[in-house]
């Protein structure tokens, strides 16, 4: 398991191809061939993306005969959401105070 899960998750999410792969896996498991279809890159490139996602804990891969279908693992995304929620709430509070200050200044 990664030492800093949040950093690994953000690093994995930084790439648009990996985000698109996660969006596809949100609809159900898929093989490397199925995941590679919409991209103008090789299956080998998609496999590298899958390794990054797997290292970050965002996907799991199983064995089914000759294939290794990938499946979304949402727990790390929940950790990102929790982390972001803390800062969202802080900024909402600050903006509410600013709005109140501006409202009082107009009076």
Helices and strands in order:
Layout lengths: L4 H9 L2 H10 L6 H5 L6 H13 L3 E3 L8 E3 L2 H32 L1
Structure description:
With 107 residues, the chain is mainly α. The protein has one domain: Winged helix-like DNA-binding domain superfamily/Winged helix DNA-binding domain (Arc Repressor Mutant, subunit A, Orthogonal Bundle).
Largest sheet: 2 strands, antiparallel
The CATH homologous superfamily: Winged helix-like DNA-binding domain superfamily/Winged helix DNA-binding domain
**What is the element string, with H for helices and E for strands?**
HHHHEEH
Please count the helical segments. Answer: 5
User: So what's the overall shape?
Assistant: elongated
The helix/strand class is mainly alpha
* Assembly form of the protein: single chain
Helical residue percent? 55-70%
The CA-CA distance between the termini, in Å, is 56 Å
Task: Please mark out the parts with pLDDT under 50 across 5 or more consecutive residues, or reply none.
Answer: none
Q: In the CATH hierarchy, what is the class? A: Mainly Alpha
β-strand percent reads: 5-15%
The radius of gyration over CA amounts to 20 Å
Question: Architecture, according to CATH?
Answer: Orthogonal Bundle
Strand order of the largest sheet: 1-2
* CATH topological fold name: Arc Repressor Mutant, subunit A
Mean pLDDT: 90
How many DSSP E strands? 2
**What's the number of domains?**
1
Task: Characterize this entry briefly.
The protein is mainly alpha-helical. It contains 5 helices and 2 strands, in the order H-H-H-H-E-E-H. It has a single domain (5-106), classed as Orthogonal Bundle (Arc Repressor Mutant, subunit A), CATH 1.10.10.10.
């Amino acid at each position: 398991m990664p030492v800093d899960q949040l950093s690994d998750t953000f690093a994995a999410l930084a790439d648009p191809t990996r985000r698109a792969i996660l969006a596809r896996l949100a609809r159900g498991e898929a093989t490397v061939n199925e995941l590679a279809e919409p991209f103008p890159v090789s299956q080998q490139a998609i496999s590298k993306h899958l390794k990054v996602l797997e290292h970050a804990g965002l996907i799991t891969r199983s064995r089914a005969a000759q294939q290794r279908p990938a499946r979304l693992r949402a727990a790390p995304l929940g950790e990102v959401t929790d982390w972001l929620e803390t800062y969202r709430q802080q900024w909402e509070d600050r903006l509410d105070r600013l709005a109140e200050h501006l409202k009082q200044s107009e009076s």
